[in-house]
Amino acid sequence: MDKIKNINELLHMKLNIPNYQRPYKWDTQNIDELLSDITNAICDAERYDTEFKYRIGTIILHETEKDIFDIVDGQQRIISLVLLKQYIEPDFTCTILDKPFSNKITQYNIHRNYGFIRDWFSLKDDDIRRKFANAFKDILEVVVISVNKVSEAFQLFDSQNTRGKALDPHDLLKAYHLREMKKDPYEMEHAVTKWEAKDTGKIRELFDVYLFPIWNWSRGSKSRPFTAKEIDTYKGIAEDSAYSYARRTSRAMPYFQITEPFTAGKEFFEMVEHYLYLLGDIKSEICNNPCFKEIKLAICGGKDVKSPEEMDKIKAGFAGFGYTKNLFYCALLAYYDKFHNFDEMAVKKIFSWAFMLRVDMENLGFDSINKYAIGEDNFRYTNTVAMFSKISFARMHNEIAGIQIQVKRESDKPANDKWKDLYNSMKEINGYGGAR
């Protein structure tokens, strides 16, 4: 049975946390996001419509006795709302709080999160507590699904969590930044139209393969998969933020830097478009500029392709080669993003640095790429240059052109003979005569 309930109605139900539930693991970031969502909902209700409702999810319950319910799905959210409700209304009682929590993780997170809620409200106007209390009965609501059999509850839980395809991180970012544009519906409409016209696979690749790894490597950190947990990196800065760095960022728009923040809202959509074009530009340069013909031939296994699309389709037959090619494009994108030139020496240094890893390694996976990108020392590496940090801290482009990159190995042969042609090409590109 499905019902829409406001939060007060939900929290006044006789709810129980069954023993099979995992510990309460929401952290202060989750609480901060919840408080921010509720604040935005209150502002929307005040600005647009007194009947405005904000739905914060679906709760699945199993009715064990008459009007007594086990929480099957939604425990993390419910406990967080209970903590918030208890701070707003100290006299509030809830069946969830009737018995103590025995799990140490749950105890720790409840104590920490309640302290965060208290600190958050201490920085707000006195009126905000009243607005939150009103929001619990007038604005915030949930869909409550209750069943009589626990097997049905778990079937619902499984279908809720496996039905269809989870939203990609860039889809979540799209929704977030559209919300930031709610004061300008025409801009929102234009942004959606342009976004929908793009290849979503290219957008996904842009974040997964290029922007997020560059962002991490430039800070000397290993990268990781770009998932929904990582989207805070690209939430940008609120347009009305009073932070000094936010004002500086606002003045810098519409100029972007991969390693720097941007203003939330329409700038996100412009940023995505900008880097899709920029990535295309660097691939076109490598493909079409005669100065880089030797690099193109090395990347394409000796084939003189005529377009970036054709160049992208060439596979070396080994995943490690693809990782190396992406590493080169990432470093070149980071360089061009900062200096906006294709200095021949700098490009060749970046290429040689990236592809020497392929020559050095018998087998090459992304873990090695991750370590190499941040300059981790390894006896198998001919070079241990933290290229992304070098680019990030460089003041002039010739600092990159002047980096010393070694391309001749002590053994004067690759770690695996199948990369002999690549090794010889790299030596020729770097002026070692008679390499073949």
What structural keywords apply?
436 residues, alpha/beta, 5-stranded mixed beta sheet, 19 helices, 5 strands, 8% strand
Write the layout of secondary structure elements.
Blueprint: E1 2-6, H1 7-11, E2 14-16, H2 28-47, E3 54-65, E4 68-73, H3 75-88, H4 104-122, H5 127-138, E5 140-147, H6 150-162, H7 169-180, H8 185-196, H9 200-217, H10 244-252, H11 266-288, H12 293-299, H13 308-313, H14 319-339, H15 344-360, H16 366-373, H17 387-393, H18 398-401, H19 420-429
Parallel strand pairs: 2-4, 3-5
Antiparallel strand pairs: 1-5, 3-4
Helix pairs in contact: 2-4, 3-4, 9-14, 11-14, 12-19, 14-15, 14-17, 15-19
What structural class do helix, strand and pairing data support? alpha/beta
The assembly state of the depicted protein chains is single chain
Given as residue ranges, the uncertain stretches (5+ residues, pLDDT < 50) are none
Helix content: 40-55%
- N to C succession of SSEs: EHEHEEHHHEHHHHHHHHHHHHHH
Widest sheet: strand ordering: 1-5-3-4-2
Q: What is the radius of gyration computed over CA atoms, rounded to a whole number of angstroms?
A: 27 Å
Bulk shape: elongated
The end-to-end distance, rounded to whole angstroms, is: 76 Å
Largest sheet: 5 strands, mixed
Please work out how many helical segments DSSP would assign: 19
Instruction: Find the count of extended strands (DSSP E, 2+ residues).
Output: 5
